[in-house]
Amino acid sequence: MRKQFACLVAVILSFAITISAQKLMGFTDASATKQIDWEKQFDAQLNAKNLDTWMQFLSSHPHHVGSPQDKANAEYMANLFKSWGYQTEIAEYYVLFPTPKLRLLELLGSKPYKAKLEESTLKEDKTSGQKAEQLPSYNAYSADGDVTAELVFVNRGIPADYEELERMGISVKGKIVIAKYGGSWRGIKPKVAAEHGAIGCIIYSDPEDDGYAQGDVYPEGPFRPKDGAQRGSVMDMPVYPGDPLTPGVGATKDAKRLDRKDATTIMKIPVLPISYEDALPLLQSLGGPVVPAAWRGGLPITYHTGPGTAKVHLKLEFNWDIKPLYNVIAKLPGNELPDEWVIRGNHHDGWVNGAADPLSGMVSELEEARGIAELVKKGYKLKRTLVYCAWDGEEPALLGSTEWAEDHQQELKKKAVFYLNSDGNSRGFIGAGGSHTLETFFNEVANDVKDPQTGVTIKERKYASAMVAGDKAARAKLAGNKNIKLSALGAGSDWSGFLQYLGIASMNIGFGGEGQGGEYHSIYDSYDHFIKFKDPGYQYGMALSKTAGRVMMRMANADVLPFDFNSFQKTVADYVTELKTLLDNTRSETEQENKMIRDKLYDLAKDPKKGFQSPKPKDDVPFLNFSSLENAMVQLKNNAEEFQKQFGNGTSLSADKQKELNEILYKAERSLITEKGLPRRSWYKHQVYAPGYYTGYGVKTLPGIREAIEQRNWKEAQENIEIVSKTMETYNAEIKKAMDILVKKPF
What we know:
Elements: H1 2-21, H2 29-45, H3 48-58, H4 68-83, E1 87-107, E2 113-114, E3 139-140, E4 145-149, E5 151-153, H5 159-167, E6 176-180, H6 188-195, E7 200-204, H7 207-210, E8 232-233, E9 271-274, H8 276-284, E10 312-332, E11 337-347, H9 355-377, E12 384-391, H10 394-397, H11 399-407, H12 409-415, E13 416-421, E14 428-434, H13 439-446, H14 458-469, H15 472-478, H16 496-501, E15 506-513, H17 527-534, H18 539-557, H19 565-606, H20 627-646, H21 655-667, E16 689-691, E17 699-701, H22 703-710, H23 714-743
Parallel strand pairs: 3-8, 5-6, 6-7, 7-9, 11-12, 11-13, 13-15
Antiparallel strand pairs: 1-2, 1-10, 4-10, 10-12, 14-15, 16-17
Helix pairs in contact: 2-9, 2-18, 3-9, 9-18, 19-20, 19-22, 20-23, 21-23, 22-23
């Protein structure tokens, strides 16, 4: 009897666990059960062989903007979408895309050297020899220029590095600078150099970062060989992305264009990327002080700041052509709410063959789209319309996605529920960033996808990785908290037009961490490199399809859209605390620096022979009044917590009331943008997330306030506190509208 009772308990517990597992955010229990069954069928029909087939074709030739393969790839993918039942078009735009006409870099003096500026063909890499089709190594949107000057090493070329040089008494005015890749987005390096008076900029890949110091170089290992060079854009995208000649409007054939001289995002000085093979003779020529320990790289030399006795000659000329873009737009209409769009995107253009970046993400998106289309053929009903996009021109300046978003901005403001982005993908751990209203929803998804290497969920593996990587204090803080915290989105891929310009809730996801290499933006980002080192067998390509597929299917079919204001308010509250700490630290540092200056001046007064060159004392840090923002955050906390309590009522509302509620939910993010935008860059309208003005890829949260404090612009900081306060008040009003629907009795 006891044994039978134990068996009965086990069955009941098993049934209870099964029932519990069927719950999905925004779904009734019945619809959640059906949804999960469809997701199992979705997983079962995904096929890694498709990813390999598509990867081989799409990466078979260089496919940069304006190339024959770029157009061929767009047509190839459009035909795939059409064959699966999608309503498909290729949306064309016409953008400024410069390509090199002349590149010359030479070291003059007693030990002259002419930079090779070419990557070697490797017999182990079948596409590396396609020289006639490859874009040479260059930085897009560099200025034309012919300059000869002394050379100065500026480490990563970020503002803090110039402060260090100033302390050493070294100026870059009238000189050419050489900077290491890394530490910031590449476009920041010439931007800051020009602000300090430099007349040219060279950026090189140091072997410490992605070359032989990290492991065996390609083809023996995945890392950058001595002549590998990183192409990339240096357009000033923290001001605005997209076509530099058509800010704020789609770059259609008949669009009104700026004169090139009036395009503020084109770099003002010539810029060239080089390999560490070409960098070595330049760095060896430098004299001056030995650099700080943190500046030293992996080359077998003593790193000096410069300048040296020999000068450097840099000459660049570009073809400033208008080139066509080919965005593939594929729609699978919803049955109930066709005018609510759930949008998915990955770019398809590459600097050369672009297997890892971006095709590893693109082929996963294709298989995901195919899988959902197959379900629809079997009877799966989509409530909302799915819009699958393959963007062109991401590499130069987020061109394709930005132009499409600007061109369709009024329609997107009405219809876009959500945007999901991916880019390159490799082995390892799930990474996710985006609007923090989506954090709870994404954690639920991550708990339902298995990691192909370990068999645990991708959420569990992410947690294990964080525990292993953290120090003792970090592990203690993390212990038991398996929640994946979404990172905030700055720049770097195609979400900007949706999130930061239009206020559409967005996410970016992908796997990585175990697919390191040095192929980035070189001719070695190839099919051969990818299948050997990045994701053999496309295990994580499949995992990305499963993860993104669930995100899309659940967002399309949720009865109540799965937005959680509580996650958002907790995150923004942390950002406000960070700002206060930043202000306090700035005040403390200012007081210490000014005291040191006063002490030095006092010593100088006693002994004038010391010859101390006194820097100008900094202005005192004033009081900033955060009260209006604090009050808005208290209201946000109360409203968000109450909304979370009432959220479950939404699934029992009538269809009309659900539609009304959902429209408030997906448009709430719109209230976080202001039409005036951020100071000095009005294209970026979101008041919570933006790329940093001096970090590029790196995000600045509550950017109007944070950057004003960092730049010691106290008047602007206070003004932006008030702007953000009013923004949060507007956001609070949207939550209250949603609450009014939820608390009324369903009918």
